[in-house]
Amino acid sequence: MERPAWAPQGIDISVPSVSRMYDFYLGGSHNFEVDREAARKAMEFMPGLPKAMQANRAFMRRAVRYALSEGVTQFLDIGSGIPTFGNVHEVAQAIDPAARVAYVDHDPVAVAHSQAVLDGNEGATISAADLRRPQEIRDSPEVAKLLDFDRPVALLLVAVLHFIEDSDDPRAAVAALRDMLAPGSLLVVTHAAYEGIPLSREEAGGTVGVYQNIRNPLVMRTREEIAGFFDGFELVEPGLVPMPEWRPESTAAPENEDPYAFSGIAGVGRTA
Amino acid sequence: MSIPAQPSGAPDAAPDGPEDRLRRFATIWSRAIFPSTATSMTRPEFEQHLLPLARTLSETLHARPFDPAAAASVGGALVAAHCTDPDALSSTLGVVDSYLVLYCGSNGPVALTTEDSRSRCARVQHAVAAGFTQALRERTLAEQEAIARSALAARSHAEQALHATEARFRAVFKDAAIGIGIADLDGNVLEVNDTLTRMFGGLENHVLSHRVNEWVHPEDSPQVWKYYNELVRGEREHYRVEKPYYRNDGTVLWTNLTVSLLRDSEGRPEYQLALLEDTTERRLLNLRLRYEATHDALTGLPNRTLFFERLEKALSAGDGSRFGLCYLDLDGFKAINDSLGHAAGDRLLVEVADRLQSCATAPGEMVARLGGDEFVALTTSFDSPAEVDELACRILGVLGAPIRLDGRELTVRGSIGIVEGPAGERSAAEVLRSADITMYRAKSAGGNRFELADAEADARAITRHGLTTALPAALERGEFFIEYQPLVHLGDGTVHGAEALVRWCHPQHGVLGPDRFIALAEHTGLIVPLGRWVLEESVRQANFWQERHTDGGPLRINVNLSPAQLHHPQLVAETVDVLERSGLEAGALCLEVTESALIGADEDLLKPLRQLAEMGVDIALDDFGTGYSNLANLRRLPVSVLKLDRSFTQGMQHHPADPVDLKIVEGIVSLAHSLDLAVTVEGVETGAQAEQLRQLGCDTAQGWYYARPGAPDRIHSLLLADAV
């Protein structure tokens, strides 16, 4: 008899993964040829994608440091992907060794890799769960064990909301997560947008098409739509801005940044 | 890549020390490679990060002995800082080539010659490139290995999950209390669980060796194989039926069967999945419960429920089919029960049931017990109505043989009502009622016989039943009224009195005479209140006439007494009460009693009549001559009037009168007069009759010749006519 239809499917690494493509953009080798092929195709339309990724990474680093400066030492990073370098726990634990970081991803390979990387780190865990089902995240044993939801948590939705289509109601998912958070918690978001990309909408649309083809549609949203995710949060200064403009640490002026670094919007909100 | 212009002149003449020069080299280097790095460090952090590497380069340049290999670590450090882009290496080499000697050439303890500097700088670059390449290769291999390991781990984890799921489903399959089988679309059974094997008798091979479409059973519902074929063709997703199977020992397994179509990932039909629940026991239980619900516990015969089912089936059968029904009630069973006890009565019923069953053994025949001593035989298998009569004869025949019970022999008889007719005309209840009515006709005709239903007799019985039930309400609603028929003195033709005759103004049937309802009122006991009402009403009326018509002598009123009234203990008291309250003198009242009611009357029965007679109330013997009364008895009865039945006067309606009738009437009149009894004749319809009767010496007469019964005011006008 053949395997019955109700059995779960195995891991198919012949399909590109957005996590491994992200790793490739950042110069990593945690990827396979299918991932690189898709990433190269996306870069044909947007050659500066790596710079956007780097800016995203740099923003995240600043946001983590900001959270710690605000006294928030617990982090819930959903859509954490392949831990390349400069991960949340590295940034946070370098400043506060007691900082706790719960990673969540739905890509089984990313989860397995995270498990290997985090092995032996008491303050960091990885859970296999999906942003579209917030209660499963809250109920996952690792998250429940590591994080104290009675105290503020920094919820990181960095470069992940643009992979959730409106039909899956990402706003409801964010709202459900918000309702789990104690007062003083933070929401950290970056999101892809046509705004700020140094290309025409048609050119940038080619990249969107690549993600469409690998069945991981990239949903470009407007600033207003992105602001909608902050319902019930108060945006901290300077509000929703291009990534390099969010509390830059460098003495160097943002205009020295690569133009592609401005491809995407960042913001941090605080629960009332 | 832009390289900033040199701020000052020759290195040796620089105003700042070697450390500052080293820092400036690092700044240039950082600016050159930062755009091609993937680091998340800020520019100042990155520059700070490069400073120790710049120092290493500077020290390597000046080392004695010169060993460029130390610079390899710088290439490795770049890779570690995520400067893995090829541009990072070429930019680094460009910066080293252009600026290392320029900024750091004089930083060593011993100044280098230009030639030496160039040569050492070139070799430092070679080492940086080698170190970079080495580190990048190691990092790439390590990361590739790591991601491959992660993919493997994820896959093995998924496989474990799959395995756990499969193990769970396997356990479900294996241990389910329900039988599960999987077959391909050709009907080849691929796998069955133990429960299913056990249900089929325990031999797995028995189940696996048959194709699904070979499991045919004669009791399969007609759709089951249609559903099956639709399913395997992919036209039906599932079906659910009750289906019997043969076990390997030949016994029957009953199941609730659910079959589902399993499709592959592209939606093509692939397997059929059967779930079987063993319902054999439940079915047996249901059959037993059904049997108990449809059979009489005492005799084991079908009961009323089952009989009605069959009867309804017979009545709803197609055109042209007929049914025959024998409704049997034992004669005198109550007496047997009362005298021998219920246990004996029950044994008798069992014996009767057995005998009845032996009469109806053909297919299409059934015997049932409706309750008590009532049985029915139903037949649908006969060619002529006579065969139904034969069935009734057989039944009476088998009852004829004496039944031995407790050492004595009892002879049981029965009365049978037969209904025979075409299906589709009457309801089961109507048929049974007709049979019941007919059975009672047989019983009242003496029992031990059968009667055939006829519509007229049924209608009469049905009307009778309707009237009986309507009687009490009719009395309350005042539906009864009285008509009066004058009694005429034959001597002078004057009105002598009137007979009160009760009528029922029925809302549906119109005016009904006493022949239609007095017997019913007798039967139900309603005759007592009805009789009292008639007495009150007619005495009141007589008193009214008395007051208006004082000159014509006392006007009499005749009221009929039924046998039940005669037995009523309050008869005398009530009559006295009625007379007293109305003020009518007792001598004006005549109570008519039928001759048959007094046949064989003992002194107890006569006593109230005697008391009434002593009070002055006349007692008339009604319908005289029909009851074969003992003429010798006449003298001891408290009777003062004989009312001659109309049958004696019929022969005198025409001239010449029947001489025999004349002789008889003459004899009776003579006898009556010799006993000091007055004679009244009824049914006088012609003048000739009246004249003849007058000549024969009759005293009074009534009949249509004088007047039909009518409203009280008509009597009044007759009286007035007399007076004129």
**Computed structural class of chain B:** alpha/beta
Give the biggest sheet of chain A.
Answer: 8 strands, mixed
Strand content of chain B: 15-25%
Taking all Cα atoms into account, the compactness measure Rg of chain A is: 18 Å
For the record, the CATH architecture of the largest domain in chain B stands as: Alpha-Beta Barrel
Pair with the most extensive interface?
Answer: A-B, 43 and 38 residues
> What's the shape of chain A?
globular
Give the proportion of residues in helices of chain A.
Answer: 25-40%
The overall pLDDT average of chain A reads: 88
CATH fold node name of the largest domain in chain B:
TIM Barrel
Strand content of chain A: 5-15%
Question: What would the keywords be for this entry?
Answer:
heterodimer; A: 272 residues; alpha/beta; Rossmann fold; 37% helix; disordered N terminus; B: 724 residues; Beta-Lactamase; Alpha-Beta Plaits; 4 domains; 5-stranded antiparallel β-sheet; 24 helices; 21 strands; elongated
SSE layout and pairings?
The complex is a heterodimer of chains A (272) and B (724).
Chain A: H1 18-25, H2 33-45, H3 49-69, E1 74-78, H4 88-95, E2 100-105, H5 108-118, E3 124-128, H6 134-139, H7 141-146, E4 154-158, H8 170-178, E5 186-191, H9 201-213, H10 223-228, E6 233-235, E7 241-242, E8 265-271
Parallel strand pairs in A: 1-2, 1-4, 2-3, 4-5
Antiparallel strand pairs in A: 5-8, 6-8, 7-8
Helix pairs in contact in A: 1-2, 2-9, 3-4
Chain B: H1 18-33, H2 43-62, H3 72-80, H4 86-104, H5 114-175, E1 179-184, E2 189-192, H6 194-199, H7 204-208, H8 224-232, E3 238-246, E4 252-263, E5 269-278, H9 280-294, H10 304-315, E6 322-331, H11 333-340, H12 342-359, E7 365-371, E8 374-379, H13 385-400, E9 403-405, E10 408-410, E11 413-422, H14 428-444, E12 449-452, H15 455-477, E13 480-489, E14 495-506, E15 510-512, H16 514-524, H17 527-548, E16 556-561, H18 563-567, H19 571-582, E17 589-594, H20 595-598, H21 603-615, E18 618-624, E19 641-644, H22 659-674, E20 678-681, H23 687-696, E21 700-701, H24 712-723
Parallel strand pairs in B: 11-12, 14-16, 16-17, 17-18, 18-19, 19-20, 20-21
Antiparallel strand pairs in B: 1-2, 1-5, 3-4, 4-5, 6-8, 6-11, 7-8, 9-10, 13-14, 13-21, 14-15
Helix pairs in contact in B: 1-2, 1-4, 2-3, 3-5, 4-5, 11-12, 12-13, 15-16, 17-19, 19-21
